[in-house]
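2024-03-11 09:14:02 INFO worker-7 job=invfold-0412 stage=load source=structure_tokens
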């Protein structure tokens, strides 16, 4: 839209050519915002008396020419010049009104590009600052003092899950698990602890704590202060995360990180490696927002961020009528019996280890040794580090994980989830819950 002015004829001079007539058609052009008109023109034009206001209408007699005479030819219509046009004239460049509009749009485009990431971050900061029911009050849209960037947190969470996974794998392959009993579940099942759990926990905890010292971290295993390790983050963000996720700041005090350094410990000791995962979850005001599920023995990692992006997706179809139900193999409770009562005797029940593995079974995960299911149900008590990452991933992909009564699970406060869980994606989650009245009672037995 730039045009060289050297060969153009000289513009009409109002002193010698007389004022340009301001005809009704022209007046319409002004009020519609004709280039150079009141709505589009710049302050400089108005200061220079050009473009800002319509020029005064000249006094012209009703019929200024005699009867039978032809009206004199109207002087060529030309939109008023804009100040920047005049400013560019010494450079030998003149912009047509259309060129001027394109020039302004280009400028706006550059400004938008520069500020879009920043604005998206500020918007998310404002939206995510909304307190959850019963959660702590967070400053809304205030200056990000003590703020954390969720994109950074996602990058560190992925790194932590991978680094923890390396410990899990190393211990298993070295075959020195140092297996101990750490207690019993409410149902009387033995809870196991291995060197894999502890070493992974140490790596993951100190990496996250070192990168985000102001953030609350809840981990399945006890962190021994006498056994500190410095694990630093070089602040690099993987390319796929950079591509899909915008920087998004939230107040540090609104964040709770949940670490499961080794999910499916029972199966780990049984050498059923396919079930084992390491997981990190980030909750903001109790809502699960970032989930990372890593399989150390196949180096597979799924991550997702609510309203951000993911590297994993839902499958294209699910069987809602006779769903395949994936359940715990070591903490099943009465889930099989009740699932069959609810969905019929033909319902396929898939017993499997690990809450992370069972969430991956609902997704499109091209992994050897990864089974597929339509619904994940757990009826006994379970801890939040076991389920938070899966809940965040499902939520980010449009799925649901709720208690068996259909309540959202809040990832602040206590470690435990009392109401059992049901997880699904691309299904009528509410209808599933309505089919499960008996499971809810079973879970609270
Ligand atoms: N009733 C219960 N009480 C305590 N933890 C339970 C539980 N049921 C399941 N879990 C924990 O939830 C995780 C997934 O369980 P499951 O494999 O049975 O589905 C396991 O975590 P860890 O392996 O991280 O300890 C398991 O210990
Ligand atoms: Mg666990």
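2024-03-11 09:14:09 INFO worker-7 stage=emit residues=445
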């Amino acid at each position: 839209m730039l045009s060289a002015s050297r060969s153009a004829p000289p513009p009409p001079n109002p002193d010698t050519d007389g004022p340009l007539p301001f005809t009704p058609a022209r007046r319409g052009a002004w009020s519609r915002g004709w280039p150079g008109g009141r709505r589009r023109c710049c302050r400089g034009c108005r200061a220079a008396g050009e473009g800002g206001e319509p020029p005064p209408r000249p006094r012209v007699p009703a019929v200024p020419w005699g009867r039978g005479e032809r009206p004199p030819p109207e002087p060529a219509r030309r939109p008023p010049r804009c100040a920047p046009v005049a400013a560019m004239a010494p450079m030998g460049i003149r912009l047509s009104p259309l060129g001027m509009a394109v020039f302004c749009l280009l400028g706006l485009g550059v400004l938008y590009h520069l500020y879009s990431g920043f604005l998206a971050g500020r918007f998310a900061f404002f939206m995510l600052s909304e307190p959850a029911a019963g959660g702590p009050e967070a400053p809304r849209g205030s200056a990000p003092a003590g703020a954390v960037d969720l994109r950074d947190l996602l990058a560190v969470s992925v790194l932590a899950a991978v680094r923890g996974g390396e410990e899990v794998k190393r211990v298993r392959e070295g075959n020195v698990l140092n297996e101990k009993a750490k207690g019993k579940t409410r149902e009387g099942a033995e809870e196991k602890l291995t060197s894999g759990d502890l070493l992974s926990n140490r790596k993951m905890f100190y990496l996250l704590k070192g990168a985000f010292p102001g953030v609350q971290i809840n981990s399945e295993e006890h962190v021994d202060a006498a056994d500190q390790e410095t694990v630093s983050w070089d602040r690099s963000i993987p390319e796929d995360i950079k591509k899909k996720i915008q920087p998004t700041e939230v107040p540090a005090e609104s964040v709770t990180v949940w670490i499961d350094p080794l999910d499916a410990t029972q199966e780990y000791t049984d050498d059923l490696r396919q079930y084992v995962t390491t997981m990190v979850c980030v909750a903001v005001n109790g809502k699960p927002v970032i989930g990372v599920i890593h399989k150390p023995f196949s180096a597979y990692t799924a991550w997702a961020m609510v309203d951000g992006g993911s590297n994993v997706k839902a499958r294209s179809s699910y069987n809602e009528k006779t769903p395949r139900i994936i359940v715990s193999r070591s903490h099943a409770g009465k889930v099989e019996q009740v699932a069959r009562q609810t969905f019929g005797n033909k319902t396929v029940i898939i017993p499997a280890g690990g809450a992370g593995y069972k969430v991956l079974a609902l997704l499109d995960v091209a992994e050897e040794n990864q089974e597929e299911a339509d619904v994940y149900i757990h009826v006994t008590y379970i801890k939040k580090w076991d389920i938070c990452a899966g809940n965040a991933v499902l939520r980010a992909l449009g799925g649901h994980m709720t208690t068996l009564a259909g309540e959202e699970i809040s990832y602040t406060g206590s470690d435990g989830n009392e109401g059992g869980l049901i997880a699904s994606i691309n299904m009528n989650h509410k209808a599933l819950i309505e089919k499960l009245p008996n499971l809810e009672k079973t879970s609270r037995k």
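2024-03-11 09:14:09 INFO worker-7 stage=report msg="The mean pLDDT is 79."
2024-03-11 09:14:10 INFO worker-7 job finished
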